[in-house]
Amino acid sequence: MNNSSNVFSDPSPNRFQVNVINESHDNTVPPLGDPDSQCYEETSFADEANNRRRVSYRHGNREVYDNCFQNGDAAKTDGSFHPYDTHSNTYYLKSFGHNTMDAIPKIDYYRNTGSVSGAKMNRPSLMDIHEQLAKNIAVTSVDKFTKADGTTRGDVESKNEEESKGGFVKFGWVKGVLVRCMLNIWGVMLFIRLSWIVGQAGIGLGVIIILLATTVTSITGLSTSAIATNGFVRGGGAYYLISRSLGPEFGGSIGLIFAFANAVAVAMYVVGFAETVVELLRSSNALMVDESNDIRIIGAITVVVLLSISVAGMEWEAKAQVILLIILLIAIVNFFIGTVIPSNHEKKTRGFFNYQASIFAENFGPDFRNGEGFFSVFAIFFPAATGILAGANISGDLEDPQDAIPKGTMLAILITTVAYIGVAICAAACVVRDATGNVNDTVVSGMNCNGSSACALGYDFSSCKTQTCGYGLMNNFQVMTMVSGFGPLITAGIFSATLSSALASLVSAPKVFQALCKDNVYQGLHFFAKGYGTNNEPIRGYVLTFFIAMAFILIAELNTIAPIISNFFLASYALINFSCFHASYAKSPGWRPAFRYYNMWVSLFGAMLCCGVMFVINWWAALITYAIELFLYIYVTYKKPEVNWGSSAQALYYVNAVDRALELTTVDDHVKNFRPQCIALTGGPMTRPALLDITHSFTKNNGLCICCEVYTGPRKLCVKEMNSGMATKQAWLTKNKRKAFYAAVAADSFRDGVKSLLQASGLGRMKPNTLVLGFKKDWRDATAVQVENYMGIIHDAFDYEFGVIIVRISQGFDISQVLQVQEELKKLEQERLALEATIRESEIEEGNHGVRGFFKRATKFNVTKRAPQKASSINTISSIHVGEFNQRLLEVSTQFKKKQGKGTIDVWWLFDDGGLILLIPYILTLRKKWKDCKLRIFTGGKVTRLEEEKIMMASLLNKFRIKFADVNIIGDINMKPNKESWKFFEEMIEPYRLHESCKDLTTAEKLKREAPWKITDAELEAFKEKSYRQVRLNELLQEHSRAANLVVLSLPVARKGMVSDLLYMAWLEILSKNLPPILLIRGNHKNVLTFYS
């Protein structure tokens, strides 16, 4: 047996081939001209040329194919044995050599829409492999935007744009993260502030300050690593990590703060660089204006240069960073070498004595001056540790962010911490705190040193106690230059450290800001989302960052800027740690970080530590930071951006909901806690808005409301329509602020569907207890089966011990025809707008002169001439539709949305059903729309005891604490109705009567068999008194409640098998005829009211 030559051949081992196999007895491939040749061609599911995967039908002998597949499987015929199946002369789709459409596991099925690394593919749907095999089989790429996978339209557009440009730069973990983090951490503090910090705090507390800062950053680094390895990371750094973990509310609020903090950090690092340059100018007596203004001038020039490098592209910026790192490492090594080179007399006068145990001991303890303390010094130092996110901030430019961010970030923290501690200890062990720099300040013989290490080494710096000296750890910011082996290298290191940190921050701020703007969390900032060049560079963000940095450079005081940066970065770190804790605590199955070296409680401790340190550093700055964050959080929450990132907040909502639902099952029901939980048979909620509105009026913030729809008809079509509409209809409820759920079922009949809903809806204690449905206004025109189904639903509800509420309004509830007309008008309006746009474009394009311009004008003339015809046709169609438009129906459909004026809700409490008939109208009076309506209670009684029964009813209502305006006792309910009313009732039921009493017994039995649904004379006679009562009640309702805003009436109950469906519908018809909106209510005869506390 021989298969076609390319059955098992696949140029790529990762491609899923769908092959059409021809198996035959003669082991030959049929010639092309053979009429029985294969009529299906094979196509790969991974066709890389056009991303379309299909098995296409080729016209030929269809009989071959029709005989191949029966019920979705290949037909079995006698023939030769195949190693995978025993098929003969058949064609089938092949995976693993088996006849199946099932797709093998493949990464392309799990990609997000718009993925740069590969096209997203759709695996065959469950219907594709479950239903019979179709003639045309196609598996196509996703070509529409989706929100379920967390991809926004901005992501897709930018990614596709980058992909089309090609050539964008990607970095590995060393160049992209390690180098960048080390350079950003080794910033201005290393060379020009670390000596001052160790001078103030001493070696002991200085090391503690470094370790405390490292603790915060290390915990944050661990949390960052965990989040970064929990799925693919796009550009945006901290913003991306927080927003995808905690949601857009937290992400959007911290994203702005974090981007702003990075922009201000540019100013801080540039000011550090400018201070060093000004120091050199001062030592050479070459100041331009004065020190402060020189810092501003040099800082401004520096930022312009850095902006030019950044705008040139990431590749140039990365090359500059590598060069700066080399210079920085040489400078640090130069410092350590300088500490062991013997000091000369000049350096000794400036406080440098090489390693001395006495200096180490003297500098070990703190010596805080000028109002400084432990936390103020910590606040100055902490920004030196804030570079840990420099690599994560350019996550979109990394080859493998999941591998690079943890490895590069944690190693950078380790290396820089060791360097900081080493430099701090070495500087404090070699240099005294105060020195005069005067070569004549040597110790005179017989002088008492009083434990001074400098004095013991032969130098007298005692004058520094009474006046400020210019050298030493406390006074000279350029201590490392003095100590080093070659001073200019330290200056080069300072330049390198400050410029590299400034450059990294200048790149980070726009990248983070661009990611925030792409997500369109703040719609007004979408202008900054646009990128340029092969790397999608945020040029607009660079310009904005430039202006922010320039503003802070004008402050020119490093110690003023540093605490502000500390609070902004600490707020970001706190949320990153909280994100890691929250994601772990939510226990979502989607939280599966590849980085395992984290702990949720350590992350929580890190978040609390960050918050605490914020207040310790600067309490008012912390309050301002939190106030800004809270304002932005509330703003984003209010705007509700249309994004779905699968945040841990969503996971926690679910966990909490399940926990609360389970806890609720342990609590027994109590009458005081009864609330109406309704199944409303609205169909699509937008098609019967009035029924939804009245139900929502007494369930909003009070009970459960489920809008239910039953699909009947061919099962396959019903299920498909139902599944496609679920999300849309629930979204409609949310958009229209209806606190309700949508549920749908597919069933053989309407009654069967409702029966399923009555039995299975709800969860635990949150199960419906009341059925709300509209009155079947067309019952006289409906078929007997439809009426039977409607009545069967009411019987089923009573069987399952549900309360029943039947609502009737004058025009009915269904406005589906109105919606259809509106949809048609909308389409016509869109066509009109498109036509106008075409006309405008033709006018804009016109502009050339001469013959060409003449022809263009002629074209325009023709277009504009046709336009009025189209517009007039639209107006004609619109007028026709408006003429058919049932304006009254539309008005009635919105009547329960409007505020009800002063009026009454008339409650006809004729039969005790447990109190539901009283509770519903009482709840309505608590709503804003119904609060001006007063309750009037009507009930039956004996004519001889009207006053007594009125007092008893008023007493009962008072015990129930239900406010009422009036109580009316009706004594003549059981009187016969007037002749006109009874005649109307008889005429109404006449078409449905059997009139068997006028026929002989045989004929009567035959009529009963042929029309069992009709009303028999015996039935009518048996329930004549009850029929009288319904007709009489309508007369009383017309008399007393014709002007009420709403009528609430006890629903009569029809005994199963005793009262026919048509007679019962006639009762409901006559009861509710020509009245205001009416609720026919019957509880399940269990108490829903109590007067006990």
UniProtKB/TrEMBL annotation:
**Residue ranges occupied by any Amino acid permease/ SLC12A domain in the UniProt entry:** 176-679
Question: What is one Gene Ontology biological process annotated in the Swiss-Prot or TrEMBL record?
Answer: sodium ion homeostasis
Q: Report the membrane topology from the UniProt record.
A: Multi-pass membrane protein
Where are the annotated coiled coils located?
818-845
Query: What is a single Pfam family found in this protein's UniProt entry?
Result: SLC12
Where is the protein situated, by its record's location annotation? Cell membrane
Q: Where is the SLC12A transporter C-terminal domain?
A: 688-1093
- Position of the signal peptide: none
Q: Which residues cross the membrane?
A: 250-274, 295-314, 320-341, 374-396, 408-432, 597-621
Catalytic function, reaction form = K(+)(out) + 2 chloride(out) + Na(+)(out) = K(+)(in) + 2 chloride(in) + Na(+)(in)
Q: Name one GO molecular function term.
A: sodium:potassium:chloride symporter activity
**Any keyword Amino-acid biosynthesis?**
no
GO CC terms in record: apical plasma membrane
Instruction: List keywords of the entry alphabetically.
Output: Cell membrane, Chloride, Coiled coil, Glycoprotein, Ion transport, Membrane, Phosphoprotein, Potassium, Potassium transport, Sodium, Sodium transport, Symport, Transmembrane, Transmembrane helix, Transport
Q: Which residues form the Amino acid permease N-terminal domain?
A: 85-149
Q: Which domain of life is it from?
A: Eukaryota
- UniProt-listed PANTHER family: SOLUTE CARRIER FAMILY 12 MEMBER 1, SOLUTE CARRIER FAMILY 12, CATION COTRANSPORTERS
NCBIfam families recorded: 2a30 (TIGR00930)
Recorded family membership: Belongs to the SLC12A transporter family.
Q: What is this protein called?
A: Solute carrier family 12 member 1
Its source organism is Eublepharis macularius
Gene (name only): SLC12A1
